[in-house]
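Dissemination and training. As part of the outreach component of the grant, students in the summer workshop were shown how a complex can be specified as a set of sequence lines and then modelled as a single object. The example used during the hands-on session is reproduced here so that future cohorts can follow it. Participants entered these lines:
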Amino acid sequence: MTEFVAGLYAQYRESLIRMLYRRTGDRDRAEELTQEVFARAVAAPPRNPRPWLFAVALNLVREEGRKSSRQGRHLELYRNEQPQWIEGADETLLRDERIGKVRSALAVLSERDREVLLLQAEGMNYHDIAQATGLAKGAIGTTLARARRRLVDAYRSGEGNQHAAS
Amino acid sequence: MPHLDEGLLHSLVDGEISGPELKALERHLADCAECRGRLEDARQLRVETLGMLEQLDEAPAMLHEPVAMPMFQRRPDLAAAAPPQGAAEAKAASMAPAARRPWRWMGPVGLAAAAVLAIVIRSRTSDAPAPVLTPSKDEAIALPARPTAPAAAPVAPATEPARDKRAEREAKASRRTTADALARADTPVAASGTVTATTAAQAAAPPPGRKIEAPVLKLDEVTAANPKPSPLTAKGDVLDQSARNLARPLQEAPTTTTAEMAIRALGGSIRLVDGLAPERYELEGIVVRVIYRTPWGPLALEQWRAGNVLAHRLRPAPGTPDDSVAAWTERIR
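and obtained this result:
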């Protein structure tokens, strides 16, 4: 069991943190949530680990969002990391603007579309995405098509920025 | 053949179609300029969205530093449990293409397994850093349901006296908290580590009586119990948390908690339904609920520690088919 979970950790930690960071925009939360995912894997090693780990990670993000809503806090889908150094103000500003635009566009998508997009970007095949999200495998292609088109349209039109500002 | 569905085109560019289906699509694409154009659009969309997501990975410079693993740093004894750096890198190299991309602010993957151990060790000990524990990695991962012996005597590393003093202070505080919690309860019943083993079935259907010789305790009896501090609880071990829970009124509202805290509340292990991904964990008194999402509503796996047994019961949402309940029951691990 030690080797099994340690193997999962070595294999999927990086991918989980990346997906969670893309999803939350908060590196510390991504780290914490990944640790929580593996704590659960230690408690009950999953039989089909890859979709299980990502499903738990996404559940945790959703649960966190619900908790924030219940507590009446302002729900920030994406909390941008604030750089704490000056590296060339122009470059930094441009990059932050670009990242902010992508995050805003991503926020326009439905939760399900966003999750499918993020999972596919981690190299997961449709079978595993279906297992992680509960969608039918046959629906993944359509979901991805819609999510990709919506993301690109929102990015180009700046729709996400208006959405975030409202 | 009608024009290809957009979902099918995206499945095609994602490499999800093979065999005879692929051949049929290729034949159609060879004859249909419109679908070829749409296929190219799908390909462009795929590349563009992946590029957009990769932009999110451009983290600030402060994140380029290796990610610190405080627990690991505090626990040099766990370093030996980490797999060799080479082995971890070999595993990382076998990851999916997307996961192999440079991830500039990622910490060294070589610490991975040790960090898992650190999580587990932390789940078994008090909130304070506990540099006195030196469990083997097998012991740490196995999360034994019942601690079998008091923690080993402290062995203070000569190079870190200040940290040990702090840990000692925190351990004392932890013991005081436990003692206070125990003193507040009012019924004199022992529910300490002296309880002997019994079966899970017995614990799930607790018989009457509260004798030590018949160690199966009812949920409400355990809740009302006033366990005397045992050597185990006094050592800041996982039973500390259980003892605090015993002293907590049962009627308090359930609170959402983490898997780590749920495991601690149950004394080091937890039951789950194999094949289902937990949505959240709730804690109410000594009862931990693992909540799953099902098409019929939330499914709760309630569990509590009775002596050295982890009792449990499954609470499906109203309207859940019996065969689903039976299947989940069989998959409780």
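Confidence is low (pLDDT under 50) at residues 60-165, 172-252 of chain B. Students were then asked to discuss how this feature might be tested experimentally.
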